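Chapter summary example.
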Amino acid sequence: MLGEYRISGRRASDIAASVERGVAAGDLAPGHVLPPMRELAAVLGVNPNTVAAAYRTLRERGVIETAGRRGSRVRPRPASTARGSLRVEVPAGVRDLGDGNPDPALLPDLGEALATAAKEYVGGASRYGDAAVVPRLAELARAGLDADGVPAGPLAVTSGALDAIERVLAAHLRPGDAVAVEDPGWGALLDLVPALGMRVVPMALDEEGPLPGEVERVLRDGAAALVVTDRAQNPTGATVSSERAAELRSVLAEHPGVLLIEDDHGHAMVDLPVHPLAGVTERWAFVRSASKAYGPDLRLAVLTGDGLTVDRVAGRQGLGPGWVSGLLQWTVAYLWATGAVDTAAVARSYAARRDALARALGERGIPAYGRTGMNVWVPVSDETGAVSRMLHAGWAVAPGARFRMASPQAVRLTVSTLSAADIEPLADAVAAAVTPVRPVSYG
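The structure predicted for these 443 residues follows.
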């Protein structure tokens, strides 16, 4: 049935990873039938339940399908539906509060930055063999990281935060490894981890970040990596406080072998300080993106971390894209150097809208969460119904299914396009569309 390919492994995660390697290499072609569970268990010398768990993992990841007595076989193609595709079609005349984009009025004008960067670029255009990080960007990035208490470490530049996280995970982990992520959390990250063949482990949070008890639980259960959003967590707006950071560092100190990845999602758009966790574990990475505060099309993030991690990321990057455009790096350097974004003003603008909406919802008996950033997270008892009723009322909101795993149902509202006059009508529409629920773990 399998030709020359031999499945190996003693644990369920290892067996599943072995099958995925075979599929990725083309040794297990679409339609290939896998051995019956008891037969494979006998060959590997493991309990049939172990093979059953491996096959279950493969089914959940869309690698194989099971058809009763016909057994399990490799799928014709991966069954992967990105959470981002769980969008609401927005008809004409409906306000879109589900896209998660920043307010264009709060983004800097890139014309002058690009023109200045082009002039700088003429005298030192990046060539094959040059340093991958523009020195001016490295200087500014390092100064900002130092000011925020991020431990010293080498720098790399990637095409956005998600690119950085993917490269760090791939540098240290392998298929089957467990990655602990916030729940609810960033939908793109929840897609990325299983796409890498790794296992998502959810952990609850409140408005001050991941709960220490949850972090202890996932690490005790064997999570190989932990991803934490420091500020303006998407979708809840959570920001790690100094007290919570101290508690989390204490937990991490007992697990020095875990890979820690921090995403400073709120950089330059949140006026609360960042409280880094980095430096407690042996392997760590801290990511700072330019996209939210300076423009989504600026696909650039700065990554720092321990020497081995950054070296592996930069080495693998050199074998693929090579480097992020020097012209783009000069542009971001100019924006940083000139203070093109008034962080305090941006934070006040988003806070005024968030707080007004949360207050109006509270007056109507509806809990809402959004400590920082541009989103408000509203728990509901019937997510699908709430989205449908909001759409009928003229408002498109993001279904919580894009962001959650084990956490309760909810919807996300992005406040970027709201005016003061929108708050009361929107709160009335939400009140009519949802059934109030009791506060949950992230509030």
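To summarize the output: The longest strand covers residues 283-289.
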